[in-house]
Amino acid sequence: MKLITFLLLCFCVILNPEAQTKKVYQITRTQKPPNIDGVINEGTWDNLQIATDFIQFRPDVGKSPIKEKRTEVKMCYDDKAIYIAAYLHDNPDDVMRQFTQRDNFGQSDFFGIIFNPNNDAQNNTEFFVFSSGTQADAVESPNNGEDFGWNAVWESAVKLVDDGWVVEIKIPYRALRFTQQEDPTWGIQFHRHFRKTRAQYTWNAIDVTKGNFGLYNAELKGLKNIKPPTRLSFYPYASSLVSTFDGETETDFAAGLDVKYGITENITLDATLIPDFSQAGFDNVELNLGPFEQQFAEQRQFFTEGVDLFNKGRLFYSRRIGGNPTVTPETADDEDVIDYPEKVQMINAIKISGRTKKGLGIGFFNAITEKTSATIEKTEIINENTPSEQTIKSRRKEIVEPLANYNIMVLDQQFNKNSSVTLINTNVTRDGNFRDANVTGLLLDLVNKKNTYGAQGEVKMSTFNDVENQENGYSARLGISKNSGKLRYNINYSYADEHYNINDLGILFRNNYSNFRGEINYRIFKPTKKLNNFWAGFWFNYNQLANPNTYTGTNSGFYINATTKKLFSFGGNIFTNIGKRYDYFEPRNGFDSFFITKNYTESNVRISSDYNKFFALNANFGYGLFFDKERDNYSNWWYGIGPRFKFNDKFLVVLRYEYDDYFGDRGYINGQDVDGEIIFGQRERIETEVSISGSYNFNPFNALTLSFRNYLSRVTYDNQVYNLQNDGSLDISNTNTKTTIGNDTDFNPDANFNTWNLDFSYTWQFAPGSQLTALYRNQIFNFSDDSQDSYFDSLNNLFDQEKRNTFSLRLVYFIDYNDAKNIFKNKKSS
Q1: Buried b (16+ CB within 10 A) or exposed e, 249-284
Q2: Residues ≥6 apart with Cβ < 8 Å to 782
Q3: Does residue 174 sit in helix, strand or coil?
Q4: Are strands 164-172 and 186-194 parallel, antiparallel or unpaired?
Q5: Strand pairing class (513-523; 531-544)
Q6: Could you tell me where the beta strands, DSSP code E, fall in 90-180?
């Protein structure tokens, strides 16, 4: 009852955040904009307020810099943009300036400026310039963190000087969302980061012990009568591709257009017309023996940029759009699928998103994918076993993904500078007799006025429609947290029934759960004699099925992370399943059966050395063991080692080798159901992964990059197989071995799964927002049952397979409507 009473109080009490002491920058209008060249000798910069006296918040909270490392910032504005000049005093030998590509911080000092036109503490727009001249930008909110997938077009220039470095920045108003006001007050913050020591300072002090960083923004005043511009930008592109595979060459040419349009001062439409994702990065595919699908990171820019609103409630997994077809074609005994498409083509997509001055976030997303078919070949034998025997082949098409529409609508109201309530709906509508799906969620995130305690709640309903039936599923979560001070904790309860399903547009690995979770952690905010930071915690889970309400397992863990004064990081964790664990998913038959494991414990340790050095090293080692007399031969161990070589400020190479050995693992043997029995096997699973990433950046605008990955999984089953019993145990089968399951005497579940991916690219940013990219891609894949082959034998067999070689060239050009309009005006007037 005490817990319920506390939760009700957290949800019902709405208080204003406590006042913070804020610095104020009084900006001045200029009649002559400065040249953005890193030299601040124009009269524009005279007689302006100087923002200085920065305060450190990481790692030594509250410390002031010495005079020789002070920061001085000036700002001015006109009708087109805001201009910033920062003089970053330092010993030139201490300034680190690794050249990287956009949004990659690397080993560089940086200066950042944060704007919040609504001054709501929850919706920041961030711009960073590195000492190398590279740019980074992001939108930031407490719920979603920093989204560096968002990109704006703005200008900056850097100049190294005898006592530090200088940066000049021009932020056009098109890069910001704000309403027209006569005399607004914006949120503003300046950041400075010293990469050599990892020290970071801000102009307005930040209390890192509580609240989000946006609460500590300073105030920007003096922006008189600025008008939001017509926010209309075009990104026309053209791409060409040549691909060779199995002796055949394919060519393709595409042209299209991306558009950004400001519907209102705060609401923006993004559209991709005739999309082209031919240069998206490769996926880290693995051999999946488990009951759940593998999740892949999004590689397509349209789906990584400005999607913070659509990620509310974790209902949006963008890889569903243009991913694999959802239907497997049905075939007769004399039919084979000879052409099954790997991807579904997206026709177009739009996003409409923004936030009003009163904190209401509005989001609308829509995408359409085309009808996709597989080719099925039928083989008929006429006059079999006679001299006139003939083989006749015929082909037909079967739809594996119909024309489909994917839609998301979001309303997110923020209040009190630290809380929000969200209504989100996702919908998938497929043409014809294919399933449709709909999910609706209501989310609540409350924080008290001192930013010390929070409460979170959500309820969701999913609806699944196909030709034969409709299913409604439900999910809920309730939690409380202490999110301030050195000692913090959270407690939450989560529930989903067996019909809850978001996987048409989201991703959910399991449903039918009723789980309790608690976590407590401790951290320091002031460096100790030897440590810059320290963080340790303990968590505990108690898991049940929702229907029937039955216990499935208890697990807990402990973790620790720290960084020394010499920037050497280390950490570790211990995970344990306490007692019996009832796995209802591995048997793959709904929730009718379960598989029992007992008393499993694993631990892992990791280290990471100083990336500032020529040579740095990441490494980890782990070991796991079952404390079960019936499975005393089961253990698994793994290690990884990743050396890094920073040859100079332009050239970086990162290597990675990982080795995992799961000995005595037991699991479902895919596709084998003999006389109603569920068949398990005992196996050794060895996984090896080698990866290389490298980059050579000629300057902030020209770069060569290399990405390589070779993944090998070898799975060898014992000759003995097992039948899953009603009590969750495994009984040794006396009649079946892995090679004679059922009537199939040639069955062999052993696997040798080997993939090779290599991307080598050159990128040239030839104008702000405009880019040319040339990409060479090499792909090889092999799957066999030669699980006993060594790594090098497997590699030789992989090289015997057909290779897909692809070369593509893509040009994107940025056109701003306002700039184009002015050009035509000038031509007309002349």
Answers
A1: eeeeeeebebebbbeebbbbbbbbeebbbbbeebee
A2: 752, 753, 754, 794, 797, 798, 800, 801
A3: helix
A4: unpaired
A5: antiparallel
A6: 110-116, 124-130, 135-141, 145-147, 155-161, 164-172
Question: Whole-angstrom Cα distance, residue 322 to residue 325?
Answer: 8
What is the chain's percent helix, strand, coil content, to nearest 5?
Answer: 10, 55, 35
pLDDT of 809 reads 97
531 backbone φψ class: left, alpha, beta (φ>0; ψ -120 to 50):
beta
Q: 755 near 711, Cβ under 8 Å?
A: yes
DSSP 351-419: EEEEE-TTSEEEEEEEEEE--EEEEEEEEEEESTTSTT-EEEEEEEEEEEE--EEEEEEEEEEEETTTE
Residues 6+ apart with CB under 8 A from 768: 153, 154, 155, 814
Per-residue pLDDT band at 38 (split at 50, 70, 90): very high
Tell me the CA distances in angstroms from 303 to 127, 277, 657, 677, one per residue in order: 21, 11, 30, 44
Residues in the chain, total = 830
- Band the pLDDT of 674: cuts 50, 70, 90: low
What pLDDT does 11 receive?
42
How far apart are the C-alpha atoms of 130 and 107, rounded to whole Å? Answer: 9
Cβ pair 808, 277 in contact under 8 A: no
Write out the DSSP string of 291-328: SSPPP-----HHHHSS-TGGGGGG---GGGTT-S-S-P
Q: Mind listing the pLDDT tens digit for each residue in 706-747?
A: 999 999 999 999 888 889 999 999 988 765 566 666 555 567
Burial code (b: 16+ CB inside 10 Å, e: under 16) for 93-123 equals: eebbbbbbbbebbbbbbbbbbbbbbbbbbbb
First to last CA, the chain: 80
Cα pseudo-dihedral 4, 7, 12, 18, rounded to 10: 150
DSSP string for residues in 113-134: EEEETT--SS-EEEEEEETTS-
Residue labelled with tokens 């400065």: 34
Provide the 10 A C-beta neighbour count for residue 32. 10
Amino acid at 324: N
Q: C-alpha angle 392/395/398, rounded to 5°? A: 150
Task: For residues 201 and 187, give the distance between their C-alpha atoms in angstroms, rounded to a whole number.
Answer: 17
Residues whose CB falls within 8 Å of the CB of residue 197, separated by 6 or more in sequence, listed in order? none
Question: Using omega within 30 degrees of 0 as the cis cutoff, is the peptide bond preceding 59 cis?
Answer: yes
Determine contact, residues 481/462, Cβ cutoff 8 Å.
Answer: no
Q: 604-619 as b/e, with b when 16 or more CB fall inside 10 Å?
A: bbbebbbbeeeebebe
SS3 2: helix
The torsion angles phi and psi of 313, rounded to 5 degrees, stand at: 75, 0
CA-CA distance, 369 to 367, in Å (whole number)? 7
At residue 590, the pLDDT reads 86
Q: Alpha helices of 525-589 — where are they, by DSSP H?
A: none
- Comparing CA positions, the residue from 589, 604, 563 lying closest to residue 199 is 563
Q: Which amino acid is at 327?
A: V
**Could you count the other beta carbons within 10 Å of the beta carbon of residue 485?**
12
Residue 621 has pLDDT above 60, yes or no: yes
How many Å separate Cα 572 from the centre of its chain?
A: 23
Token pair 């240069």 is found at 279
| Contact criterion met (CB below 8 Å) for 135 and 167 | no
CA dist., res. 718 & res. 665, Å (int): 10
Closest CA to 219 of 26, 418, 17, 16: 26
| Dist. CA 209–CA 225, nearest whole Å | 38
